[in-house]
Specification:
The structure is a homotetramer of 136-residue chains. With 136 residues, chain A is an alpha+beta fold. Chain A contains three helices and six strands; from the N terminus they run ααββαββββ. A six-stranded antiparallel beta sheet of chain A has the order 1-2-4-5-6-3, covered by helices on one side.
């Protein structure tokens, strides 16, 4: 279709949303050929599961997966896409770490898009995976 | 098994978690016989999808579903349960409203529990539904 | 919209499909007001998980869920709808029993429909639950 | 743990199950290092969606995904694992083709395993994707 969005265009869109700004997501890599976007999410005190543990609650991880999957498709569609549904699987606790999130387009159809997201901690351990369907 | 937790016990557990405190969830009804818990989540400025719209972003809705489903089971198990995976389906935008969330036990097994969550706005419209699996 | 399909119209559609005929589904109840359809699926030797156990393999149960959820919406839309995605949760083995499957509309939108399906055995035990999204 | 199963051991297990025999799955590749198994499923007349179309119904595709994901883990665990839940996303019709199904381990934990399955037609088009959780 049209030219894929570049990193600064995506970051400008991310900043527009109060909730995504709160998540603090930044784009660390973009590969239109592989249809992948990589984002980084820093830990915030509000995201802690139990006091003093520095462990992420699953809720913010799910929120990040929803957003990163969306932007893998946004790169090609040029606007935010409503989520139809998504699934998250949690594998390991994420403790005292930023999250490195790789979103990849699995399908970009006329009416529906699907993206997979892998979430790693800073040491490379796989924390959670997501699969999301968006309306196009 | 043992006596189900009551409202004040569940609210004390909710308050312990920094993230759940941030969500601001309060228990509005509890029915051990129907295996249901109802919680209310107020809108926060940080949860807004686009500036000035008062529309909830899907991320906090997913976070609330994960938590309310968990507590439908916590009522009977007496402690927080790690989420194995969950699915969220979004039906309608939630605008300028608190969310009324009904969690219901679908299965309480030896190793795995499953709960369904329906999320309504204050006018009774169905905003989103969730289904989650927890380790017991 | 238009008048909902009646039982004989739905059974005529079910028979058209070679695979659904093979499943042997019959409509046992239809309630347009509650947006529910109930179907019955008999056990077949080909569906057995391990030889001699008379236990259903999960695959045919998933197939039945996909179909029953579809027909909860077909009742109102009047034609077969392609499945976008679905989730199945298995609760208990189904042994030497027909399956009683209740499909219920959760959302009937302009472009997407969602249905829930509960699968019981003949004694009333909950065997599996499904949630499916269809293109309209 | 122990030595991963080889191709003949897995095919012997597949043949034991009446339903998997009916699906006609054969192992075409096995890579213990990549934790991947590839299986082939031929079209059968019973799997046809509408008469004369040679198009696969989604039900058998879902059944195949459940089984191939299971065997990605069976390769390392040495016995069949009950499915806790799974999700299937359908992308394109599969017409007059065998299915080539690649199952890959995403997590092999103490109590739960997760596998992804990609289903292609014989021309290499991506037909459907699955993600499944099994009890270990």
């Amino acid at each position: 279709m049209t030219t894929p969005l570049d990193q600064s265009q995506i970051e400008a869109m991310l900043k527009q949303s109060p909730f995504i700004s709160f998540l603090g997501l930044t784009v660390t890599a973009l590969d239109a050929g592989k249809q992948e976007v990589v984002m980084r999410a820093p830990m915030r005190p509000e995201f802690e599961r139990e006091p003093g543990t520095r462990q992420w609650h699953g809720g913010p991880i799910a929120s990040i997966i929803d957003t990163v999957g969306d932007y893998a498709l946004v790169m090609f569609v040029g606007r935010g896409l409503p989520t139809i549904n998504f699934r998250v699987d949690f594998f390991r606790p994420a403790i005292d770490t930023a999250l490195i999130c790789t979103g990849r387009v699995r399908r970009l159809g006329r009416t529906v898009g699907v993206a997979d997201v892998d979430v790693h901690d800073e040491k490379g351990a796989l924390i959670a995976i997501g699969r999301a369907t968006y309306a196009i």
